[in-house]
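Box 3.1 A note on notation
Throughout this textbook, protein chains are presented in two layers. The first layer is the amino acid sequence; the second is a token string describing backbone geometry. Keep the layers aligned when reading.
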Amino acid sequence: MKDFGPTQDLAQRAKVFALDIIRLSAQLPKTSESRVLRQQIIRSGTSVAANYRAVCRARSRAEFIAKLGTVVEEADETMFWLELLIESGIAQENKTKVLLQEAKELLAIFSTSRRTAKSGKHSTDR
């Protein structure tokens, strides 16, 4: 693996997160408001995993950083939709809060990875 490459464990974690988002969306009520939020959260939540997969295939540090930036944006957007689902009362708060916590953790990991890659530091530099 390249020195700027991610781990497969994180790719799997992002995929599980996407699957959990899909499962949550299937449980949302069948209202017009829910439909809009469902479409948004499915798009952004699954995009986290899909774009992280692209990060794993980056051919250069610059491409890695750029693609990781997209993952960070999608994770943050997914947090927004989860917050809306909770605050609007559309989704069950207990299940949605678990996903919101996972989104926060993933966002922190991806943001840190991007900052580290941008700084030029490697895990072997420690």
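Confidence is low (pLDDT under 50) at residues 1-5. The CA atoms of residues 58 and 64 lie 5 Å apart.
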